[in-house]
Amino acid sequence: MKAKVYFADMHCRKQADNKTAKIEKLCEAVGLKNILKKDGLTAIKLHFGEMGNDTHLRPQLVRKVVDLVKQEKANPFLTDTNTLYSGSRKNSVDHLETAYMHGFSPATMDAPVIIADGLNGRNQVAVPVENLKYFKETYIAREIYEADSMVVLSHFKGHLVAGFGGAIKNLSMGCASFWGKRAQHDTKVRVDAEKCIACGSCIKICPAQALSMKKDGDKKSAFADRQKCIGCFECQTVCEPKAVVNEHDADLCNFAERIAEYAYGAVQNKRDKVVYLNFLLNITPDCDCVSWSDAPMVADIGILASADPVAIDKASYDLVTKAQSLHPMENNGINIDKFAHRWEKTHGYRQFEHAAAIGLGSLEYELITI
Ligand code: SF4
Ligand code: SF4
After folding, report:
1. How many domains does the chain have?
2. Ligand 1 centre from 284 Cα, in Å?
3. Is the pTM of this model over 0.85?
4. Which domain holds residue 225?
5. What is the pLDDT of residues 263-296, one digit of tens each?
6. CATH code for position 337
7. How far is the CA of 229 from the centre of ligand 1 (A)?
8. Which residues contact 246 (CB under 8 A, 6 or more apart)?
9. Ligand 2 probe mutation, 195, 202, 242, most atoms within 8 A of CB
10. Is the same domain home to 16 and 132?
11. Distance 131 CA to ligand 2 centre (A)
12. Do both 180 and 192 map to the same domain?
């Protein structure tokens, strides 16, 4: 049977059709009420955006979901997990400050904000998973694991390693503890000495002190110690000449598959207690983990809702593929895989293909416009 994916486009000429009204209709269509329990704890999982990024989800849209959950007498809390890399969300104190700065505070949201994996990302539950390709257990942030239900709100956009980020990525990297994130990355980087201009930016930012400067004759360049590297890719984000390369480029396919398996682990104890909303707005090439916001790849498309994380990501991906590109090099770009074009070494589609293969959801969907 095809999974149902509900879709609201972005056209609007009156208040009754504004984005919060569309969210209400989508939540009703997807059966939000059915996953909530009176007095139960509902995690509203989102990404608060790295400091400097301004294309993360708008607080007003998230507040609407909080209000809808409260209407059903459930107790919502906003949540995310700390990052592996250094930045403004590395620990819970910095993370909360960033969330508040971006408009996600108890005062504006009428709900608490709880970082799900504790002060330093180590508060986790080891969740057993069976018959998967890479993992026998997944390390999931405790406060997410212990919630009775979850609403996963995902800003759909590109990602330099995963290809794209949607519901599956929000569940996997987004719900994993420090150790869970490390397990998913499981790769190293190396520095192409020819391209390196020895600026030192990567050395300053590396959270594992894995990078140092070395000299070969007159030529200085950075060097990555593969024993220390935790594969967070932070150095790639600051290297302007693109001298930092993934040691296992071909393995980005495996990376996408590992993400799918962690998504499976994140919902093991609440498979029928989760709904997903994907926001196809500000579809930037980079994820919200970067401290900037690039111009969008395509115009705003709409908001999708589903009870199936695979179907909603596949439908979102297909809509972006079909959309007209705003990139001057893509020559309108209709029916071009924008994410693969922008991040040519990635295999984003393997996220939903592998997720479907392990039983997380369906690649077959029916798109229902509301
Ligand atoms: S060298 Fe490894 S640990 Fe350091 S920033 Fe780069 S990917 Fe992360
Ligand atoms: S950021 Fe790039 S160019 Fe600068 S030192 Fe590191 S590898 Fe070399």
Report:
1. 2
2. 24
3. yes
4. 188-247
5. 999 999 999 999 999 999 999 999 999 999 999 9
6. 3.40.50.11440
7. 5
8. 161, 187, 188, 189, 233, 236, 252, 345
9. 202
10. yes
11. 41
12. no
